Give the backbone structure.
Amino acid sequence: MTAVTDPVTLMKQEVGKAAAALVKSGSIVGLGTGSTTAYAIQFIGERLQSGELKDIKGIPTSFQAEVLAKQYKIPLTTLDAVDHIDIAIDGADEVDPQKNLIKGGGAAHTREKIVDYLANEFIVVVDSGKLVDRLGSVFPVPVEVIPIAVTPVMRAIEKLGGKPQLRMGVKKAGPVITDQGNMVVDAKFDSIDDPASLEKTLNNIPGVVENGIFVNCVDLVLVGEVKDGQPAVRKLD
Ligand code: 5RP
């Protein structure tokens, strides 16, 4: 196997490993979506297989997380079968200094919000490129929309000052379809001054299922960095 040398991949592996190390035996674990969380899922699986970790149940936030959990032999459960989640580990597309997030780069933000908000401890894993002074600096806000409402929702987003774009598939003709069978409108705002207010306003548009602004819900952000050529993990708490 060839060793990984790409710095971003190295940072993702290190934060994934650091987050997986925080999972305790007997826990119900929310399993996030994306390329960074994928490493956390892998390392949780490795800890289980080595016997270091016992009696874990995972709740996946997407089809991707479910497939990875099965690949790494992490037993799964559902929200119907448990009355709490101990810890959730998930990635993000942007993190501001107050630990508010934009998520949904993988179109999984609706299930991610349900699972991550239910967790007693929500850990976010990112590489340092995701840190921003203000949400919306780089990334648009993903908005999951019921298919028949896409056009009116895009008009409503324009009225709010956003630039909406229907997310299109890669290696698939036509729009991205979420795990719930809906579509995603990416809404670019020049500046998000009040993330909590925009989150509520977007969710009040008829036809919107959920948007990717996460406010006041994060306990700890693990940031992967490269220091002196070596990957390192810093805590933002
Ligand atoms: C998926 C997400 C992801 O967590 C987010 O896009 C970050 O992904 P990655 O770790 O691949 O950069 O919100 O909906």
In short: Residues 32-37, 90-93, 103-109, 112 surround ribulose-5-phosphate (CB under 6 Å). The chain has a mean pLDDT of 96. The domain at 141-209 is CATH 3.30.70.260 (Alpha-Beta Plaits).
